[in-house]
């Protein structure tokens, strides 16, 4: 009998994972329901010979292609095409082969009784948590077509912003690569050419300046252990990436990201903007506040803010206002909290939240532009300092020798 790996949530809200034997995916979901477990992800386990190797550097699906797919799915559904048939059409005609396979798998899961949001969530390398949250909201509030359009719009906006950043960072990136390459070349190949000269100075009793001693020591270390250093750096990067996937790693990374100068403010604003946009959209389409808070918390991209929103659910359910627990978390700027507080009193929370998200997005673009402009001179300064250090380390003994001879 086939086996299915599952991740499910209990009535108490605790997540659990395991393997269950069932004749089909639908039967596996039914068995989990009998155990009072809500399935979040149910995947058939392939036989050892059927497993596909997924390389860590495998190409991701382009945001532009995803946006077009969501738009086409929205158009098909709006024109009365059933969901299964729409997914089948998109999967067979998709220009991206990998996305086509994913859509056909999503279609198969939906046909087996899995919700569209859960089916999309089973492919986290393709569909972001925000996309899954918006689809879940569309299903909850019966505005799936609009939710798909909003996802497409968000993805296009993010892609435009990403291309702008890439275009602005191209020159600093080239400077960094060339600068590091030149520095390593000078330290490993040019400095050793002066080793005999430095040795003669030491034997003559003249001695070497501290800068030259540090430079020569660094050169000898890199020549002898350069490969080991490179391997160690690669190993550390791999271990850190694996650690960042864990719950503890994600929480610490989210906390550290908010403390990074300039960039931390951008990360914080982006999380708040996503929360406000998704929450406002849900409320505008009639989704109850408590349900909207739970769904929008998953779209923040920051576990600290997500935890604060989930804690506010308990406070709001007891009759308190939304602004009070959010303000107590300290993660929402005071001016935004003032707008939310007034919007609650005026019963215009949905409209105000969307406007807040728009304004924050505009501010993020300005902050990104400032950050990118600061990177270029800083990069030039760092590279110039490294090259100057090497030049001074090589020439200073020559100047000292000339001074002693004179």
Structure, explained:
There is one protein chain. With 406 residues, the chain is mostly helical. It folds into two domains: 1-53, Ubiquitin-like (UB roll) (Roll); 170-406, Type II secretion system (T2SS), domain F (Receptor-associated Protein). 73% of the residues lie in helices and 6% in strands. It has 16 helices and three strands. It has a three-stranded antiparallel sheet. A hairpin with a 4-residue loop joins β1 (3-10) and β2 (15-21). The longest helix is centred in the last third of the chain and has 57 residues, at 349-405.
State the gist of this model.
The protein has a 3-stranded antiparallel sheet with strand order 2-1-3. It has helices spanning 25-34, 63-78, 83-93, 97-111, 116-121, 129-141, 144-190, 195-203, 210-245, 247-257, 263-284, 289-297, 303-317, 323-329, 334-346, 349-405, and strands at residues 3-10, 15-21, 37-44. It folds into 2 domains: 1-53, Ubiquitin-like (UB roll) (Roll); 170-406, Type II secretion system (T2SS), domain F (Receptor-associated Protein).
